[in-house]
Amino acid sequence: MTSALEARIDHREAVLARIRMVLIESLGVRRTPDEIDPDTALFGSGLGLDSIDAVELVVQLDTDFNVQLPNDVFGRAEMRTVNGLVDLVLAAQAAEIADATAR
Amino acid sequence: MPPLADPAIAIRESVVVTRLDHVHLLRFRGDDARTAIDTLCAGMVRARDGQLQHVLLLDEAAHCFADAYLVADDEEYDLLVEGPTADALHAHLARHLPSGSDVQIEDRTMTHALLGLDGPYAWELVSRVAGAEAIGLPYLTFFHADDWTCYRAGKTGEFGYGLIVPRDARDALETLLLEKGEPLGVARGTLDALDQCALENFFFNVRREGREPVTPIELQLQWRVSYDKDAVGLEALRRHRATPVATRLTSLIADRTVTVGAEVHLDGEVVGRVVNAGWSATRGDCVALALLDVRWAHPGIETFTVWHGASAVPARSLTPPLLNNRSLFVSPQLHAYATRAEIAMPPLARQ
Questions:
Q1: 3-state SS, one letter per residue, for chain B
Q2: What's the ipTM?
Q3: What pLDDT tens digit does each residue of chain B (351 aa) get?
Q4: Which of B247, B298, B305, B328 to mutate to test the interface with A (most CBs of A within 10 A)?
Q5: What is the distance in angstroms between the Cα of B279 and the nearest Cα belonging to chain A?
Q6: Is A39 close to B139, i.e. CB distance below 8 A?
Q7: Looking at the partner chain, which of A31, A39, A77 has a beta carbon nearest the beta carbon of B324?
Q8: CB-based contact A5 B303, cutoff 8 Å
Q9: With an 8 Å Cβ cutoff, are B319 and A45 in contact?
Q10: Do A45 and B53 touch (CB under 8 A)?
Q11: Could you say which of B298, B303, B321 has the minimum Cβ distance to residue A77?
């Protein structure tokens, strides 16, 4: 495998690991990290979060990853699963790097 | 308005009515009914009166035996079971229910039938038949009306309802639904169409990827499992969990058809195998699930190759759901099928 792909997957796994901890420590999900599968639904019958949790989750991700998730995040499909959150954080990080490079 | 031709598209755009004859309807009664259910289900049984719960039944090896909804109805429980044959299901019950317990199981499959309504306007159709009460029905709850039961659930990512009716009343209700649904673009559904939509939304399909000899860990179903209880298959699952997990179910898309069993390669190495696949008329590409080496079981990898016969099909992994489901943008309080063009929605396919 290419080292670029290896590095990208390493970074993705690190973000996923941190998001699992946010779900456990800040949102009160009563699971161990390895029990939170990446494509598990966040709301409804998956991890059982609700709309109030969603607000807390976005605030926590902004803080933890030092990013600004998009304002329209609550209507996005990415907000439906753990992997979707990883996508959102990675996109926000990439946008910030692009902004910094352009400045 | 003529019915839409392709039921998989109708599920995404309007509503379909489907005979769910593959589902077994079991009723549990008696003082030990909840204990019996708890013994069978791999997760904590949390459903309260009036609620449904997604539950998973494992076999002794911790492989998926059945996918079910548990319906808590007063002191009784219904299991709406998908996966095994009737004989295998009854053998499983006989083998695993505690002897001497006060539980009676009635198989209602021969006396009752199940009709499914799925689509962004399923709520509009069900309300035309079951009354306005259906519009506000919360997800995973039910109500009784006359001699039938209406519950809200679904495995397509769209609004979904089930109607449990006496079998001899099924055809008349189905005809009524198709008549009342004509202004809503109703189509007659098929199990294949429901399966395709489940695949696009990463809903577990016990009749496809669920037949693989793997556990809920590989299938990303741990949210339906509790490691803190005793139930069929959990001892084996705890043992399995103690060893490194090799594969994980991952969504792939490809521009051309891929088939179940095909090898998935990355940089020339075999990294997995396709376990479910189908052409998405909605997206215009092939959607697949593969059991991939956990190292590569992540979305966002653009360079997979799936071998279809002698030809290599490029594929990429993507975070499910693979659609911006219309049902997320349709509000039963504000919208209607007739005025659907006024609803602002993103493109249906997610890239």
A1: CCCCCCHHHHHHHCCEEEECCCCEEEEEECCCHHHHHHHHECCCCCCCCCEEEEEEEECCCCCEEEEEEEEEECCEEEEEEECCCHHHHHHHHHHHCCCCCCCEEEECCCCEEEEEEECCCHHHHHHHHHCHHHCCCCCCEEEEECCEEEEECCCCCCCEEEEEEEHHHHHHHHHHHHHHCHHHCCEECCHHHHHHHHHHCCCCCCCCHHHCCCCCCCCCCHHHCCCCCCCCCHHHHHHHHCCCCCEEEEEEEECCCCCCCCEEEECCEEEEEEEEEEEECCCCEEEEEEEEEHHHCCCCCCCEEEEECCEEEEEEECCCCCECCHHHCCCCCCCCHHHHHHCCCCCCECC
A2: 0.94
A3: 555 568 999 999 999 999 999 999 999 999 999 999 999 999 999 999 999 999 999 999 999 999 999 999 999 999 999 999 999 999 999 999 988 899 999 999 999 999 999 999 999 999 999 988 888 899 999 999 888 999 999 999 999 999 999 999 999 999 999 999 999 999 999 999 999 999 999 999 999 999 999 999 999 999 999 999 999 999 999 999 999 999 999 999 999 999 999 999 999 999 999 999 999 999 999 999 999 999 999 999 999 999 977 889 999 999 999 999 999 999 998 999 999 999 988 888 888
A4: B298
A5: 21
A6: no
A7: A77
A8: yes
A9: no
A10: yes
A11: B321
Which of A9, A46, A77 is nearest residue B298 as measured by Cβ atoms? Answer: A9
* Rounded Cα gap, residues B131 and B115, in angstroms: 17
Residue ranges per structural domain of chain A? 3-102
Which CATH number does A3-102 carry?
1.10.1200.10
